[in-house]
């Protein structure tokens, strides 16, 4: 069975999130744009052109048929509003606006309506432990809501706390606190493939003394209080250190809250997006997992100069990450999968173009690692999610 920690299923449900609509919107810079605004808009336009699909006719990488073929048991469905994060109506690095959260909930409800309307019930929503276990028992894919970007949660402390409680009531399992651009929540590591890290810092500067800002601390507090997982993906090392310091100092000194990085890997090269030994040990100390992203830009850094073209070449890279994480943490207990399919990561690893291809990855990992492969593909992740949902969550409204 496959458990995918990070998949952009809503991209095919919420129509204005498609790469093509992103291109159209990025062409329009509202108001009196500065030269910097126009440069940033051009870069965002290029990012959208890279997009997700293999070509104009290939369609989404995540499909029901693909999930069934790969025996995907759990798909963490990532809600993300790109136009709110970019928000060209505001100066760069402006704090979040309250209007972002209602738009996020509209997307969540669109996914709910879509999945509830599936005729054959191959995939179902899981908002809690009971629904998760029922899906697994019935052989259906459990689709679980997640959110990418703490900027969605508002500006003020009370607003953030209330919005975290609402997400918990609706069955959201984790929030990726940082993302592509600084919005005064937490500083992020560069993750745009065609911009080297030093150049990113010039074009998209991140100002301030705190890496995890007071607004970011409010997000972390709200997530812990409402039993929503903290996702470290996209944070830079400074922000990650401050998250652990906050948890260890006042919020969770007994290390009862598991921490995840849903789509990343080991830092073999220089990209701060990938995790160093210290971060991996901290995740392991809290019995969390690192989901391996299936993006060439991140996984190949420090291992290959050219792209992988075949599954065999990709497997060599993936195994290097698995083995290094196991070396640092002491076992395979903290390795997982987080593909980021349909999340603007083109090109994906060679031979892993869609969810259906995860079947071949599953078979190859079992051939190489034996029974431990099941830990990496599903059991580690199920352990963390079951621990999150071990106690009753706030009552969720049902459609």
UniProtKB/TrEMBL annotation:
<protein>
    <submittedName>
        <fullName>Membrane dipeptidase</fullName>
        <ecNumber>3.4.13.-</ecNumber>
    </submittedName>
</protein>
<keyword id="KW-0645">Protease</keyword>
<keyword id="KW-0378">Hydrolase</keyword>
<dbReference type="GO" id="GO:0016805">
    <property type="term" value="F:dipeptidase activity"/>
</dbReference>
<dbReference type="InterPro" id="IPR032466">
    <property type="entry name" value="Metal_Hydrolase"/>
</dbReference>
<keyword id="KW-0224">Dipeptidase</keyword>
<dbReference type="InterPro" id="IPR008257">
    <property type="entry name" value="Pept_M19"/>
</dbReference>
<dbReference type="Pfam" id="PF01244">
    <property type="entry name" value="Peptidase_M19"/>
</dbReference>
